[in-house]
Design brief:
Layout (H helix, E strand, L loop, with lengths): L2 H24 L3 E4 L7 H10 L4 E4 L5 H16 L24 H16 L11 H7 L3 E5 L2 E6 L1 H6 L1 H8 L2
Parallel strand pairs: 1-2
Antiparallel strand pairs: 3-4
Helix pairs in contact: 1-2
């Protein structure tokens, strides 16, 4: 039994089903992938060969960061009315370096922006590791650890959850 091959085959089938379902439900011609599984070259090859999309772009920031980049771009383009003007002749990202760390003032401005968007009735899904930011702007928090829900509840509940404190808050 080849465990790695078996896992790869299952991964391929799950990814193909997901992208086909997404295509059927959205009608989108292009696919953008982010996150750790998005860097699976074998699955990506199958998407290119067997999938329904005309184009595919893979965000090179693996893990949760890829989802956060996509969520941030969606807020910027869709909710803040900043037009998207892709230049298909070059790589506008210019590699996978995504910039410097953010100052506390910048984080506070982001928190205020997200609160304002939420107050307009728009749901916000935030993938972030900055605990104070999360606790400040969210009404409900789900903490994941290695793909499993570690805790879920209000920020006050999460702050005192033993496993969360041990794993993430340094208690």
């Amino acid at each position: 039994m080849d465990l790695a091959r078996s896992i790869q085959e299952v991964t391929d089938e799950v990814v193909l089903r997901l992208v086909r379902t997404m295509h059927r439900e959205t009608g989108a011609e292009n696919l953008c992938l982010a996150g750790g599984v998005a860097l699976n070259c074998v699955a990506n090859g199958r998407i290119l060969r067997e999938g329904p999309f005309k184009g595919m772009w893979i965000q090179p920031s693996a893990g949760d960061a890829g989802g956060a980049v996509g969520a941030a771009l969606n807020v910027w383009h869709q909710l803040e009315d900043k037009p998207r003007s892709p230049d298909r002749s070059k790589d506008n990202m210019q590699g996978s370096f995504l910039g410097p760390a953010y100052s506390n003032d910048e984080i506070e401005r982001l928190a205020e922006l997200i609160k304002a968007i939420s107050a307009r009735g728009t749901g916000v899904l935030l993938v972030e590791h900055h605990a104070d930011l999360i606790f400040d702007i969210c009404h409900y928090v789900t903490v994941l650890n290695l793909g499993r829900t570690l805790a879920a509840g209000t920020p006050a509940e999460i702050r005192v959850h033993k496993e969360v404190v041990s794993a993430y808050l340094g208690g």
